[in-house]
Amino acid sequence: RVKTWQGGRGRVRNVTFSNLDVRGVYHPLVLDQFYCPESQHPGVCANETDAVAVSDVTVSGLTGWHTSGVAAMLHCSQSRPCGVVATGIDVRSVPGCSNVVRCLNVASRPGAACADGDNMHGFRLDITRPMTEALGDVPCVHTSA
Question: Name one GO biological process term (predicted).
Answer without folding.
Answer: carbohydrate metabolic process
